[in-house]
């Protein structure tokens, strides 16, 4: 128990459907008991927390009026000064009408601060994202809008900046002169699960590349920010996104690969093809795998490609960033001695087995010279002996504190869509759908060609 929430605090749930306060509290209790990282649920702590949980149904205007009365009353009772954080955990089509209702029914309150947290997906292309921002701006200023990309709340993702900018040894080699290429992988073993309704419309490009992967790329490639605050960090990220070389329709064939999982085996268990999943069209063309070759067109990264890939039903759950360095300029040791030598790589393991490892060549302890690659390892669990906070714990707390550093700003989202839109459009216009890859494999064969054509290969993540 960390007691991170302020003493004067409450949560008011709202939905169109009616629900008693008791039923709302019970629903939350079950969810917390099931998903909390600290188990079992401490009933005493829960009871005092649950007293601060309220519910008001908002099926119509009268409901919203009741909600305002409740918020005003609770402010008065608790002395919370009308400081309000609105959290929209609803399907995206509901965002606009909820935001309008917040405005029309003056839910912001007359004193105190107001902020809104918006879940992804933020729009489904550049245009709709811009429209959504416009709607939000009718009620909230940009600095009051907290767009969630939960990857930014992960400890290991925050550690990218700490590694790069709290240490002196990495930055001098973090550029085109020393880095041959970068590989970013978000691999999942799960399939679409019960989310076909959403996923069929999204696909891996909108679901992972547009947000999580491009954010990881921005954090790896950005210049040192002038300060560690929301403006400076996001300014630097957006500069990277702006110079990401567009993959235009004619470049799609060589720089972008998609795939869709077919039947196969995950950890020895037979799994269905994507098209056999409940809610998925039998002839669906939705991609569940994407691989891209990207270029960051600036001074630091000229000539250093960034390869990115993500997929569902891959052999292993693994998110990692590998900075692959150039070989030593001169090979002192014979080719035979160096057979086991792989290029130096700094691997940031985002999840699981959170940590960082540095791969380098070492002498095998036998007579004569034989070289093999070994790893120098930092392991989060072993080094700190504490369990990291969940991404959402960090993000919600940051939103309550008003720190937007780990949330995506309007211009970031805009650039992210600007990059993925032409690829999505080119795929939609193609006569063929995505190639099928067997579940439990590393994606379609085309993905290997994407990188092997350059004389490189995907890491065995
Ligand atoms: C979500 C996607 O944003 O991220 C999911 O919608 C995906 O499809 C999930 O499974 C992955 O998140 P994590 O934290 O498990 O890597």
Summarize the structure in words.
With 461 residues, this protein is α/β, with parallel strands linked by helices. The chain has two domains: 11-149, Rossmann fold; 151-390 and 411-452, Dihydrodipicolinate Reductase, domain 2 (2-Layer Sandwich), CATH 3.30.360.10. It is 35% helix and 21% strand. It has 13 helices and 15 strands. The strands form three sheets. Strands 6, 7, 8, 9, 10, 11, 12, 13, 14 and 15 form a ten-stranded mixed beta sheet that branches. Strands 3-4-5 form a three-stranded parallel beta sheet, with no helix packed on it. Helix 5 packs antiparallel against helix 12 (410-429) and helix 8 (230-242) runs parallel beside helix 12 (410-429). The protein is globular and about 80 Å long. The model has no long low-confidence stretch (mean pLDDT 95). Residues 188, 207, 319 line the site of 6-O-phosphono-beta-D-glucopyranose.
């Amino acid at each position: 128990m960390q007691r991170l929430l302020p003493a004067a605090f409450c949560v008011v749930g709202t939905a169109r459907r009616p629900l008693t306060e008791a039923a709302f509290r019970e629903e939350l209790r079950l969810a917390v008991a099931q998903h909390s990282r600290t188990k079992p649920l401490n009933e005493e702590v829960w009871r005092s927390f649950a007293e601060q949980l309220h519910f008001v149904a908002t099926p119509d205007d009268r409901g919203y009026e009741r909600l305002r009365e409740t918020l005003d009353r609770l402010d008065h009772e608790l002395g919370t000064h009308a400081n309000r954080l609105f959290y929209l955990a609803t399907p995206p089509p509901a965002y606009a009408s909820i935001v309008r209702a917040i405005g029309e029914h003056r839910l912001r309150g007359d004193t105190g601060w107001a902020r809104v947290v918006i879940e992804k997906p933020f729009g489904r292309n550049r245009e709709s994202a811009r429209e959504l921002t416009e709607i939000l701006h009718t009620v909230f200023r940009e600095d009051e809008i907290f767009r969630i990309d939960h990857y930014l709340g992960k400890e290991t993702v925050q550690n990218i900046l700490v590694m790069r900018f709290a240490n002196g040894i990495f930055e001098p080699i973090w550029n085109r002169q020393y880095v041959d290429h970068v590989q970013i992988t978000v691999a999942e073993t799960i399939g679409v699960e019960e989310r076909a309704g959403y996923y069929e419309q999204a696909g891996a490009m909108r679901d992972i590349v547009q947000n999580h992967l491009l954010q990881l790329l921005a954090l790896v490639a950005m210049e040192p920010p002038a300060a560690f605050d929301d403006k400076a960090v996001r300014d630097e990220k957006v500069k990277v996104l702006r110079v990401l070389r567009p993959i235009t329709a004619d470049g799609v064939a060589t720089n972008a690969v998609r795939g869709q999982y077919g039947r196969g085996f995950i950890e020895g268990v037979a799994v269905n093809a994507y098209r056999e999943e409940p809610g998925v069209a039998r002839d669906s063309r939705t991609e569940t795998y994407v691989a891209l070759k990207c270029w960051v067109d600036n001074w630091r990264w000229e000539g250093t490609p960034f390869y990115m890939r993500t997929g569902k039903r891959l052999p292993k759950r693994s998110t990692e960033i590998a900075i692959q360095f150039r070989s030593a300029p001169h090979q002192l040791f014979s080719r035979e001695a160096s057979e086991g030598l792989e290029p130096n790589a700094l691997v940031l393991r985002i999840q699981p087995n959170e940590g960082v490892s540095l791969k380098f060549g070492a002498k095998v302890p036998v007579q004569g010279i034989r070289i093999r690659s070994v790893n120098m390892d930092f392991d989060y669990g072993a080094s700190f002996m504490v369990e990291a906070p969940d991404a959402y714990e960090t993000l919600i707390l940051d939103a309550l504190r008003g720190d937007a550093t780990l949330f995506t700003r309007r211009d970031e989202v805009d650039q992210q869509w600007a990059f993925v839109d032409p690829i999505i459009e080119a795929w939609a216009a193609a006569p063929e759908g995505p190639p099928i890859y067997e579940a439990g494999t590393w994606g379609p064969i085309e993905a290997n060609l994407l990188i092997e054509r350059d004389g490189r290969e995907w890491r065995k993540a």
